[in-house]
Design a protein that fits this description.
The complex is a heterodimer of chains A (373) and B (613).
Chain A (H helix, E strand, L loop, with lengths): L6 E7 L1 E2 L11 E2 L4 H15 L5 E9 L7 H14 L1 E12 L6 H10 L3 E7 L3 H7 L5 H13 L5 E7 L6 H12 L5 E6 L7 H7 L8 H17 L3 E4 L2 E3 L7 H6 L5 E4 L4 E4 L2 E5 L3 H9 L5 E6 L2 H12 L6 E2 L7 H12 L3 E4 L2 E4 L1 H5 L4 H5 L2
Parallel strand pairs in A: 1-4, 1-11, 2-3, 4-5, 5-6, 6-7, 7-8
Antiparallel strand pairs in A: 8-10, 9-10, 12-13, 13-14, 15-17, 16-17
Helix pairs in contact in A: 1-2, 1-10, 2-3, 3-5, 6-8
Chain B lengths: L6 H7 L5 E8 L5 H11 L17 H6 L7 E7 L5 E7 L8 H9 L3 E7 L6 H12 L3 E7 L8 H12 L7 E2 L8 H11 L12 E10 L3 E10 L1 E2 L4 E4 L5 E3 L2 E5 L3 E4 L2 E2 L3 E5 L13 E4 L18 E7 L5 H13 L5 E7 L3 E8 L2 H13 L5 E3 L6 E5 L4 E4 L11 E16 L3 H10 L3 E9 L2 E9 L7 H8 L5 E11 L2 E8 L2 E2 L5 E4 H18 L7 E7 L2 E8 L12 H19 L1 E4 L2 E4 H6 L7
Parallel strand pairs in B: 1-3, 1-4, 4-5, 5-6
Antiparallel strand pairs in B: 2-3, 7-8, 7-16, 8-15, 9-14, 10-11, 10-16, 12-13, 12-15, 17-19, 17-20, 18-19, 21-22, 21-23, 23-25, 23-26, 24-25, 27-28, 27-29, 27-30, 30-31, 32-33
The chains are: A alpha/beta (373), B alpha+beta (613).
Chain lengths: 373, 613
């Protein structure tokens, strides 16, 4: 049903100047492979160009897309625009590290056609940034934001992290207030997740730090939601806030509603017509496959009816839009669970839709298990 | 039928037959399966490369536990040293105290047994029980001392034990190491020379003893039997003497590694009959098969209905699987005549079945096989024994299900079954075993010293105290050296109460149990703690309580979880998260809803395990 909606295009830029301790996205340090990668991505685009129709979002994520030079970014955009048909109002996002931002550069990026900047601020506090292993400091974060603004971007997204060990509500509130000074159009507030295989995961396994307790993190989550809604933001997804519905990330919304998305670059995931596939998680292998004319796919899956339904329910219940009641197919088990979850304050009914409450967001991984038989 | 004849007299009638029917008696890990493997290998029935250990134990669960649950029979062709050709029928017997009746019927089908004794461990209690059963049936007993290759082997000591404790002539013992393949032919020769050939006459009316029955989904029930007299072949109409049911024989044959059809089975032979028997409710182990047209004058002796001693209810995890469970139980029962069951229902668990088992091992086997072979997700309730109550109106009720515990105000006296428990251990474990037995309400200890360094302690003990994990505990406290056997003796007056378990105020009837008053609190605390470990956290707080009548005697609390959410959910996270949900959904299918609390199946199982560490 979503095939009629314009698709999204994601490009994974798998390069970072340094690895942050918590991050489990695929990236490599060092820039020897940047040029081969750039040419491979452009070639990969050409492999898919004919099969994909109109696009209305383009998202450069990573890794750190801002490690690419302006020339490389311009080249990439040009090539993508040659291959794909983008609508006039395409949301064109680039993820940037505050360290890579200055006003002249942001002006150039704006001229290239980027109209949305997602800044990985994470925190304005030095101790927290150091603990996370970020390259920038709080002052740098502020000046980066100012640069984005003075270049004229009117769609700024900031990434912040909370739930850090020992973090108090006061400290987190201060971070939020600092961010709000710049009236960002979009805020992503992520609870710290200790992922296996990251440096943070390893030191956690060794017992070297005590994560913030469940109670404290839960309180921070609820506080964030209340606080930002009072400030005029829409809590439209578990970790995402927008200043008004029109500022909701169009691109990310596609992942949550089975709208086709093409992912280019190593480790990128794509979805179209019940099929999801993903690329190899290695820059070298990716480039080799592309060079030999192969698609760099590492795996794929075709979702059956049950899986589509499960995804629709769990992804839907992570978003403010919720799910249509019809998705529960009148099953007595589901309706019983729904009544209970509404009574307990995790869900609410709005006409023929089921919406998560604030507390519902906090247990959204559990909701599909309760609702589906 | 030549019932009046002793084995010796029968032997004289047919002294030189080529058939030998024998069984192996051994303590649980004295190497029975390994010896059987070697005998089969010797006969060349299996190409070396297809051989796997414990070839007769076809069920996974048997291999895993190293025990034999269903008897398997095999005919082993053997050419003796002097050139004679023989058919050696090995009738394998189950090796656990729960299956003593099946053992007795298997033994009744033999003329001789190999008594397998571990050269380093000597004679154990288990061995004794089965040996006495063999002696009662007048079977020839060939002592075989196994594991003679072990450094700790004490062949002379074991020989002395065989002589003094068992009253057998120790110089006749055959020495072997089944593991190393030493002395295997000596064992085979001893079978040929010393086990009497079967007697009986093919011209007399058919009398065949059923010692086992297995269900084959293509052929129906395959009855394993020993023909004592007469002859049976395809086309004959046979009659089961216990219930008069008749069937037309489709196929008879002998057991190699698989079934091998024959034109007929005659007196003395061991084999199978397929005759369109649909359920083994009609094929009772111990029953006599005869010909409908020319019946034997009387059935073979020793038939009895096996009586269950342990009771538990089985429920499907989700109530819409009730019919599937019913069907599976029916099919399972085809292969296990000892299981009895009837419909049962519970408020917490819905419709299910109350089942009677021969013992706790039998219960565990049924549970595992229903799950593995029949793919049933089931929940079992606390095992119970059969209690008796005298009520104030002087009537007597028998209760094996806590649900039917009489109203305490009506009860005049409560009684529970007692056993005579016999435990044989090296002396150094006496203290530990005494403590264990007293913890389990053992009383009146008697001590026997069967051989230097070893002691047999006999206790009077409530059966209820051993049906849980007594044998496991015994093995733990004796580092595997303890052996255990028991006989039911009588019912004794006992102070019994019904312990109820409440989850968020709601009584979970399937978790109720009948316990001795003095042990009620201990049980209640333990069950509450176990459930606390097993029930996952919910979005709300869960209180677990143990109560007698309205009185709460134990309590535990499961705190609510507040957060269960993935922070980031983009590209690659979506599939990963869905797969996790799929896994969790599957796990949830194995949970039981009590009110709004999901109780995992494992919780019902975990509360069965006691823990005194």
């Amino acid at each position: 049903m979503n095939n009629a909606s314009p698709s999204g295009l994601y490009v994974h830029v798998p390069f970072c100047k340094g690895k942050c301790r918590y991050c489990d996205f695929f990236s490599v340090t060092g820039n020897e492979l940047v040029e081969p990668w750039l040419h491979a991505v452009c070639r990969e685009a050409s492999l898919f160009a004919e099969e994909w129709g109109e696009m209305d979002s383009l998202y450069l994520g990573g890794g750190t897309p801002s490690v690419l030079s302006d020339e490389q970014l311009a080249y990439l955009l040009d090539r993508l625009r040659l291959q794909f048909r983008f609508s006039a109002d395409t949301e064109t996002t680039i993820e940037m590290n505050p360290d890579d931002v200055d006003t002249p550069r942001m002006r150039r990026l704006r001229r290239m056609g980027f109209n949305r900047v997602s800044l990985g601020v994470q925190s304005f506090r030095e101790v927290e940034l150091a603990w996370l292993g970020r390259r920038h400091d709080g002052g740098r974060a502020r000046s980066a934001i100012e640069a984005v603004r003075s270049a004229g971007f009117d769609n700024l997204a900031l990434d912040l992290m909370y739930g850090l060990p020992g973090q108090t509500r006061g400290a987190w509130e201060q971070n939020l207030r600092l961010a709000l000074q710049f009236r960002p159009e979009h805020l992503s507030c992520y609870m710290l997740t200790v992922e296996e295989g990251t440096p943070l995961g390893r030191i956690h396994a060794l017992g070297r730090f005590q994560p913030l307790g469940e109670e404290e993190v839960s309180d921070l989550f609820l506080f964030t939601s209340r606080f930002l809604e009072e400030e005029g933001y829409l809590h439209y997804e578990v970790s995402n806030f927008a200043r008004g519905a029109q500022r909701i990330s169009r691109h990310n919304g596609k992942y949550w509603s089975h709208i086709p998305c093409l992912g280019l670059g190593p480790s990128a995931h794509s979805y179209r017509a019940k099929v999801r596939w993903w690329n190899v998680r290695s820059v070298g292998e990716y480039c080799r496959k592309i060079a030999s004319g192969e698609r760099p796919t590492a795996g794929s899956e075709e979702l059956d009816r049950e899986q589509l339904k499960l995804e629709a329910v769990y992804l839907g219940l992570r978003t403010g839009g919720g799910i249509p009641l019809a998705l529960l197919e009148n099953q007595p088990h589901s309706l019983g669970a729904l009544d209970r979850l509404v009574r307990e304050g995790f869900l609410r009914r709005d006409g023929d839709r089921i919406l998560p409450t604030r507390r519902g967001y906090l247990v959204s991984d559990r909701l599909p298990l309760e609702l589906l038989p | 039928m030549s019932q009046g004849l002793t084995v010796l007299q029968r032997m004289k009638r047919n002294p030189m037959g080529p058939i030998r029917n024998f069984s192996i008696i051994a303590h649980i890990d004295h190497g029975k399966s390994t010896l059987a493997d070697r005998l089969i290998q010797w006969a060349g029935l299996v190409p070396e490369r297809e051989f796997r250990d414990q070839i007769l134990d076809t069920m996974d669960i048997e291999r895993e536990r190293g025990i034999t649950i269903k008897s398997q029979t095999i005919s082993i062709p053997y050419t003796s040293r002097s050139g004679g050709k023989y058919e050696l029928n090995l009738i394998d017997t189950p090796g656990h105290v729960d299956f003593s009746y099946e053992v007795s019927r298997a033994l009744a089908s033999c003329e001789g047994v190999l008594l397998l004794v571990d050269a380093s461990q000597g004679v154990q209690a288990q061995t004794l029980a089965n040996l006495y059963a063999a002696m009662e049936q007048d079977l020839t007993i060939i002592p075989v001392i196994n594991k003679i290759d072990l450094p700790s082997a004490d062949v002379e000591g074991v020989k002395e034990q065989i002589e003094t404790e068992l009253g057998l002539e120790s110089e006749t013992a055959v020495l072997c190491s089944a593991k190393e393949g030493i002395g295997i032919q000596d064992v085979l020769e001893a079978i040929v020379e010393r086990v009497p050939p079967p007697s009986g006459h093919p011209e007399e009316p058919l009398a065949a003893l059923i010692f086992d029955a297995q269900y084959d989904s293509f052929r129906g029930t395959v009855v394993s039997c020993r023909v004592f007299d007469g002859r049976v072949g395809p086309g004959d109409v046979i009659r089961f003497m216990s219930n008069g049911a008749t069937y037309r024989v489709e196929e008879v044959g002998v057991f190699r590694l698989s079934r091998e059809p024959r034109a007929a089975l005659s007196a003395g032979e061991v084999g199978y009959i397929i005759s369109g028997v649909k359920t083994v409710s009609d094929t009772r182990v111990g029953d006599t098969i005869t010909l409908d047209t020319r019946p034997a004058p009387a059935p073979l002796p020793g038939f009895k209905e096996v009586k269950p001693v342990v009771f538990s209810s089985i429920y499907p995890v989700s109530s819409d699987e009730y019919l599937g469970l019913a069907e599976s139980l029916e099919k399972y029962k085809l292969n296990d005549a000892a299981l009895v069951y009837q419909k049962d229902s519970s408020v917490a668990l819905g419709q299910g079945f109350r089942c009677g088992f021969l013992g706790l091992l039998h219960l565990e086997i049924v549970q595992e096989r229903l799950e593995r072979e029949y793919d049933q997700a089931i929940v079992m309730t606390f095992p119970s024994v059969e209690y008796r109550f005298t009520l104030k109106d002087d009537s007597t009720v028998t209760v094996d299900n806590p649900q039917y515990f009489p109203d305490p105000v009506d009860i005049k006296a409560t009684f529970e079954p007692f056993i005579k428990a016999s435990i044989i251990i090296p002396e150094r474990y006496m203290g530990a075993v005494m403590k264990l037995a007293i913890d389990r309400r053992g009383s009146n200890p008697r001590f026997n010293y069967p051989s230097p360094g070893r002691v047999e302690i006999v206790f009077d003990m409530p059966l209820a105290e051993v049906i849980f994990d007594f044998y496991d505990r015994l093995k733990t406290v004796t580092q595997g050296y303890g052996s255990f056997d028991y006989d039911l003796i009588d019912y004794r007056e006992s102070d019994l109460v019904k312990l109820d378990i409440l989850v968020n105020g709601e009584k979970v009837d399937a978790l109720s149990l009948i316990v001795h008053k003095d042990r009620a609190r201990e049980w209640a605390v333990q069950v509450c703690e176990r459930l606390k470990e097993e029930i996952p956290r919910h979005q709300f707080k869960i209180a677990i309580q143990g109560a007698i009548g309205g009185k709460i005697i134990a309590r535990s609390t499961i705190s609510a979880f507040r957060k269960d959410v993935t922070a980031k959910c983009y590209g690659g996270d979506i599939t990963r998260k869905r797969k996790l949900l799929e896994k969790q959904k599957k796990g949830k299918k194995r949970m039981k809803m009590v009110g709004s609390v999901s109780i995992p199946q494992s919780a019902f199982v975990a509360v069965l395990k006691t823990d005194h560490e």
